[in-house]
Design goal:
By secondary structure, this protein is mainly beta. Helix content is about 5%, strand content about 45%. A hairpin with an 8-residue loop joins strand 5 and strand 6. It starts with a helix and ends in a 7-residue tail after the last strand.
């Protein structure tokens, strides 16, 4: 969910007793004291915000307040009942921001809104320096130099481009991107500099000794074999002297050219890394070059099509048109229902309903029970591993008693509410997860609370996990083998030990192949321990899913985006939305230093929830439908362009809440079928078949 969606969501997450009508709002306005704010990074200020009537008197109604993520912190987020809020603002980043205020009405799109302008100047630059520069280099080579710019607040300023210079360009010279071309032996002084706001030049210098280059040839090799698009090929390049001695500290640059098997004059596309890993996106012929010291070696490889495509065949559909459908969960029944399969779906912006389905026969999806709670949105639904306990989340309750509702789902035809837990969760729970008699509830978009449900009729809070970064927020959490993987927007993926899987012969393979589990064991639900994290520079980290590759043994976390750059048309005008986003594959083999190695992104579509089974990714891409992706083998580059997509299904039902508008929320593979929920048209079951099956 992006910033726009979150701000809209908070308007009903924090919903109080509504006593304003649309006509009332016509005469209301916000007053801010002071009416503009200038602050330095780290400063705070008190601002009085009042919701006034046309005659200047207080409206006597509560309203909502929001800042901007990781930039402006706002406390409190809601006014008092008199229509006044004494707000504490604190700023963390330079730029122009707003304090946003919004009245509360039943019709959110007729609310009165106001904002206070906040300006935070950038601190002056204080330091610039090289990052890990060498002291020696070889003639006839090229080296990439990097620099770090720090401002007075200690923040790394990636928005500022430093200037690199050489004391003698006839020996070595820089281009505009920090690449140093070394022409001959000698000594040079290298500098990196920046001018701050006062036109003061800040710089750093190093000395570089340039040595005679002994390299006389480059040897390039690869493993022979048959390769498809998406297959990663490792090229090994060795720099050697005339006598055949290997020189290991000479930089070698890789490049490629290619010719595609299709089109006229179209080049083949792909990726080659600085360490010689190559992957092709199109079938064709590619030539890979390794160059150093004026010497080049090359190899040519033929790339075949991946040819893994199948057809997603519709097996069954449960049409829902009166409300938006949210998340789903599919499970096998217990006791007298152990030979049957069931599903639960939530509802969004509706009447607090969760629908229970029998899906034993995927061609006949039937609603068998409905649970209704005081809520506007039941966003998330989960069922315990033993199939007996369910949990649904609540947002927008009229009583402000949001939180989670614990269910007995052992008889899916007669689901019973066992208890509610809303202590400290009044702002709403957007997502939740059940793991070993605990519910992990994402509380008010700020943290996740850990709730013990050993006795599901008497839930109690064990602890919570919250980041300590400024303006932090969280969207979701997924638990596997005692490790919690949370998605935290700008703060990215956080991996937390909440009772990592203990070693036994039964789980030996899992632990041996998961570097995180090998180091886990210090945390528990009572004392969660952060193991690693990966910052998200875009601020769009919406989902996190762990994935142990069966084919390579590599361990990944798949980090999903969510972004609504064009707004939420389906809410406002019953028009199709147009989100964006994709998935980032974070290699966790060295879990303390996660590395993004691949992406999967459907053009002009937005990613949402996902599931991995084996080496296959099942994902909801909103208007791009259900997508099934081959993630076997080593992963590198753009998986979509490599032809790794196995199948897709567009659920554009003509009788949908928004007709003919696909909007897939989330998938779950289950017993050779794929179940998924579409916001506009309900629950689906599809099956992958070969294209030649059932065709004339």
């Amino acid at each position: 969910m992006n910033k726009l969606k979150l701000n809209i969501l908070y308007a009903f997450l924090l919903l109080v007793n509504i006593n304003l009508t649309a006509s009332d709002n016509d005469s209301l306005y916000f007053q801010f004291d002071p009416d503009s704010v200038n602050l330095e990074i780290g400063d705070s200020i008190k601002v009085k915000v009042s919701l006034l009537k046309k005659d200047g008197s207080l409206s006597k109604n509560q309203f909502l307040l929001t800042g901007e993520w990781r930039s402006v912190e706002v406390k409190p987020w809601i006014s008092n009942s008199d229509g006044i809020a004494n707000v504490q603002l604190k700023v963390f980043k330079p730029g122009s921001f707003n304090l946003n205020a919004s009245s509360i009405t039943d019709d959110r799109f007729k609310r009165v809104r106001g904002n206070l302008s906040i300006f935070v100047p950038a601190p002056p630059i204080e330091k610039v320096g090289f990052i890990d520069p060498p002291s020696t280099a070889y003639e006839k080579t090229r080296i990439k130099f990097l620099a770090k710019v720090l401002d007075k607040a200690g923040v790394s300023r990636n928005d500022i481009k430093p200037t690199f210079e050489s004391s003698n360009n006839s020996i070595a010279s820089f281009d505009d991107f920090g690449n140093l071309s070394i022409k001959q032996r000698g000594r040079v002084q290298l500098s990196v500099s920046i001018s701050n706001q006062r036109n003061k030049v800040i710089f750093s210098e190093i000395n570089l000794r340039i040595l005679r280059n002994p390299v006389r040839k480059i040897e390039l090799s690869m493993n022979e074999g048959s390769y498809r698009t998406g297959d990663v090929i490792t090229f090994n390049a060795l720099a050697k002297t005339a006598s055949g001695k290997e020189i290991t500290d000479v930089p070698i640059e890789f490049s490629f050219t290619g010719e595609a098997n299709y089109g006229i004059g179209l080049p083949a596309s792909g990726v080659v890394t600085p360490n010689g890993k190559f992957v092709a996106e199109n079938p064709g012929e590619y030539t890979i070059y390794a160059t150093s010291s004026g010497y080049t070696s090359s190899l040519t490889v033929k790339i075949k099509p991946r040819n893994i495509q199948k057809r997603a065949e519709l097996i069954g559909h449960g049409l829902i048109t009166d409300v938006f459908t949210s998340d789903l969960w599919v499970w096998q029944g217990v006791d007298e229902f152990s030979d049957r399969d069931f599903a639960v779906t939530g509802t969004w912006e509706a009447n607090g309903e969760a629908y229970f389905w029998e899906v034993t026969d995927p061609s006949n999806l039937v609603i068998i029970d409905t649970v209704t709670v005081d809520a506007r949105t039941v966003n998330d639904v989960k069922v315990s591993a033993d199939g007996r306990i369910g949990v649904i989340t609540r947002e927008g309750a009229s009583s402000r008693k949001n939180g989670v509702v614990i269910l007995d789902v052992s008889d899916p035809y007669n689901v019973k509410i066992l208890s509610e837990f809303n202590d400290g969760l009044t702002g709403g729970v957007h997502n939740a997860f059940i793991y070993e008699n605990h519910v992990f509830a994402v509380n008010n978009g700020r943290k996740y609370d850990i709730i013990n449900i050993s006795d599901p009729t008497k839930p109690w809070r064990v602890n919570s996990y919250e980041l300590n970064t400024p303006g932090h927020s969280i969207h979701d959490v997924w638990i596997e083998n005692g490790i919690a993987y949370s998605s935290n927007w700008s703060d990215g993926v956080h991996v937390v030990d909440i009772g990592g899987l203990q070693f036994s012969e039964e789980n030996r393979y899992t632990i041996m192949n998961n570097p995180i589990l090998q180091s886990a064991g210090k945390g528990s639900v009572r004392s969660p321990v952060l193991m690693t994290s990966k910052h998200d520079t875009t601020g769009r980290n919406h989902a996190a899913f762990p994935f142990l590759s069966e084919s390579t043994g590599s361990f990944y976390v798949i980090a999903g985006d969510e972004h609504f750059p064009f707004g939420l048309g389906e809410i406002q005008n019953k028009e199709p939305a147009n989100p964006r986003g994709g998935y980032h594959f974070l290699n966790m083999n060295d879990y303390k230093n996660p590395v993004e190695e691949a992406i999967y992104q459907v053009p002009e579509a937005g990613s949402h929830n996902l599931w991995v089974q084996g080496d296959t990714l099942y994902t909801a891409f909103y208007q791009g439908g259900l997508r099934v992706v081959d993630i076997s083998g080593e992963l590198l580059g753009d998986l979509y362009k490599q032809g790794r997509e196995i199948a897709f299904y567009l659920s554009n039902h003509p009788e949908g809440r928004i007709p003919n508008a696909t909007m897939v929320w989330g998938p779950q593979p289950y017993k050779n079928h794929i179940f998924f929920a579409d916001m506009n048209s309900g629950l689906y079951a599809v099956k992958l078949v070969n294209f030649e099956d059932n065709e004339d």
